[in-house]
Amino acid sequence: MAAGSSPVSVSLPGPAMSAFGDVIAWLTDPENWQGRAGIPARTWEHLVLSGVSLALVCALALPLALWLGHIGKGGALAVNVTNIGRAVPVFAVLILLAIGPLGLGVRATIVALILFGLPPVLTNAYVGMREVDRDTVEAARGMGMTGWQMLRRVELPLAVPLILTGVRLAAVQIVATATLGAFVLGGGLGRFINSGFARQDQAELVGGAVLVATLALLVEGSFELLQRRLDPVRRAGRLSQRRV
Amino acid sequence: MRPLSTGCLVRNDWICGEYVRSRRSELQDALTQHITLTVLAVLIGLALAIPLAIAARRLRLSQVLLGAATIVYTVPSVALFSLLIPFTSISATTVLIGLVLYSLTVLVRNVLAGLDAVPDDVREAARGMGMGPMRLMLRVELPLAVPTIMAGVRIATVSTVALTTVGGIIGFGGLGNLIFGGLNSEFRSQVLTASVLCVALALVADVALLGVQRVITPWQRGAVR
Fold first, then answer.
1. d(CA A213, CA A43)
2. Using CB atoms, which residue from B73, B161, B169 is nearest to A197?
3. Domains defined for chain B, CATH in brackets
4. N or C: at which end does chain A have fewer Cβ atoms within 10 angstroms?
5. Chains A, B: CB contacts under 8 A, how many?
6. Which tens digit of pLDDT belongs to each residue from A173-188?
7. Which domains does chain A have, with CATH numbers?
């Protein structure tokens, strides 16, 4: 590999400062904001890849985790996927998929995005369902609610905070994995980092990293806000406060 | 990197004993670099996390510290490494600083949680026995927080083993060097062997740390999951 053989810059504080100017110049160069490989196009690619994967993750993991949580089975599975997901390197799986049957490109990236998005959603949704106060569930049963009603009207609303935490963690994981996906030609903002390494262009490398970091923080921030808006218990609390 | 000998290397099989035999020293070097980076990252992370968490509690800045940890944790690893390159160039230091920052985000959280969980009664009793703040921290609060801190050390270690592979992009990622190096040449046995070794290393480290935890917290035996 060319990477590692020759340094992109020397390690003095001076060049770091001039690098800062170069990065600003790269980020504000109108040419980098145009075309199919421009910053807006790559950002859109990154968001679409991540959004589609997150939607698929939720569609797969949420029904399974909610059902397992409701019947109280499969806890070991739901908790262990997170431990396994932590021990398996995303980068290795991505490259294995890319040199395997899926080939370089978007397909390998999406499969890796889904694989590593599943664990946080599964685990948090399951734990959220199980942590609902058992007395509350018993009271609902005593009121004559059916299993479906208990799931829908008692357990699910009380589990929402942890479910949303799982979705937020998955979103952050997916945005990060999508960045690595650029190294197997999966598209997205990671392409600038990849090309910065390949062409030894430090401005592009660091500029790309700034864009990736900003996007990841914006995603984390928006999910945090969404979580505050959507929590039914907190919303009910707000309403009752307003009434007082 | 092109395999010259006949057999599974030429066929580019996923599993290839000949690869392991002929590249033994390369694999050992990569494994050594991987372990060195991980151990240093977790140890430096722990050495920073404990005083940081204690200081943050004392100054009532725990929420600020947790917020900062979330921000660092959110930045994807490739981006973090790239952002460090203007300061530390392409070097093992760049990867190490990145890994330390990530392990810090996990460790700080667990040190804070461990200290927060110490019951106030216990603190009062220790003060009643005439302990000053320093002795209280060293003899009572930190020991009681050890199980939670060790849980953090295990999570940080397992995550760091996995994350170190990303350092392969800049040439200092231990087994990640072999994984990334096998991408362009589609060297299957190299990528698979290095990946499997990486997962095995994470599992071995986790079990070893569980053993350490049992030894240093004898009162917890039977309670540890």
1. 12
2. B169
3. 24-220 (1.10.3720.10)
4. C
5. 151
6. 999 999 999 999 888 9
7. 38-234 (1.10.3720.10)
